[in-house]
Amino acid sequence: MNEPIKQKTISFSILVLFSLLAVVVLFPLLALLMSSFRPGSDLMRFGISIDSMFAAGKNLDNYKVLLFADKALYPYWFRNSIMILFLQTTITVFLTSLVGYGLAVYEFKGRRLLTSLVLVLMMVPLQILILPLYKMMISARLMDTVAGVILPFILSPIAIFFFRQFSLGLPLDLMDAARIDGVGEIGIYFRIMSPLLLPAYGAMAILEGLKSWNNYLWPLIVLRSNKSFTIPIGLNTLLTPYGNNYDNLISGAVIATIPIIILFLMFQRYFISGLSSGSVKG
172: which of 54, 126, 145, 203 is 20 to 30 A away, CA to CA? Predict the structure, then answer.
């Protein structure tokens, strides 16, 4: 077999393999979407199956009840989740990029100690921190607020370490040239280094946004009132021993996937390059 034919065969095999993987990954989403149009009684009788996906009787009643019924809470949950997603992702990416950049490009006393502390914090499980953080939120009167959900985790150790690793590969000669031209350190970061950090920004925006959107345990502890719940907590309240809310639960889950898909589409071109670059710098 000559070389061009061999290369085409390999490329075609890879294409088929990843197409099959895409079908496997997307099939649950398709099943969820199709089932969201089914009446709750059908879901309880037949479950989510291939036959039920293509059965007749699909309508938008589940979405109408979820979004537009009297005293519907899902719009509040969606608004709260979007607000937390935007604020936590933006603040976390900005602050951790500054910390990681500083640890990578500047020499100062205690830098290695701070880097070691970041690594140690990465290994501390959330469950250990819940009680002291809970007491702090009570003392600061931040219970049942968006700030109470966001503030304890805006400086993510994983994000700091990621930005540090990425920043180690930045061309420091550009910094020296900018200093000669009279540019200050803040100007160097925002005017020169920030464009080079775009892949890292994109990768962390997706990862931090996904973590914020799916966060369940900490918001469950902090948030008290029904209208302040996020989507993961709110959807969990739809579960009853009688299973009579699975139609709304599935419809709510379908809507909940939309912001994450949009977030990934916005930053997808930076995602792979950011992860691969940050993983090999050092």
Answer: 203
Residues ≥6 apart with Cβ < 8 Å to 78: 231, 255, 256
CA distance 233 to 169: 41
Distance CA 97, CA 84 (A): 19
Crossing angle of the two packed helices 157-167 and 198-214, in degrees rounded to 10: 170
The answer to whether residues 103 and 200 belong to one domain is: yes
Per-residue pLDDT of the chain (282 residues; tens, 9 = 90+): 566 777 878 888 888 898 999 888 888 888 788 877 877 666 666 666 666 555 555 677 888 888 888 888 999 999 999 999 999 999 999 999 999 999 999 888 888 999 999 999 888 888 888 999 999 999 999 999 999 999 998 989 999 999 999 898 888 888 888 888 888 889 999 988 988 898 889 889 999 999 999 999 999 999 988 899 999 999 988 877 665 677 788 889 899 999 998 988 888 877 666 555 544 444
User: 246: which 2 tokens?
Assistant: 């699975």
The count of structural domains within the chain is 2
Instruction: Give 138-147's long-range contacts (Cβ < 8 A, gap of 24+).
Output: 142/222, 143/222, 143/224, 144/222, 144/223, 144/224, 144/225, 144/228, 145/222, 145/228, 146/80, 146/83, 146/84, 146/87
Domain interval for residue 159: 73-280
Q: 39 CB contacts (<8 Å, ≥6 apart)?
A: 57, 59, 61, 62, 247
Structure letter (DSSP) for residue 24:
H
Compute and round to an integer the Cα radius of gyration of the chain: 24
Pair 215, 230: CB distance under 8 Å: yes
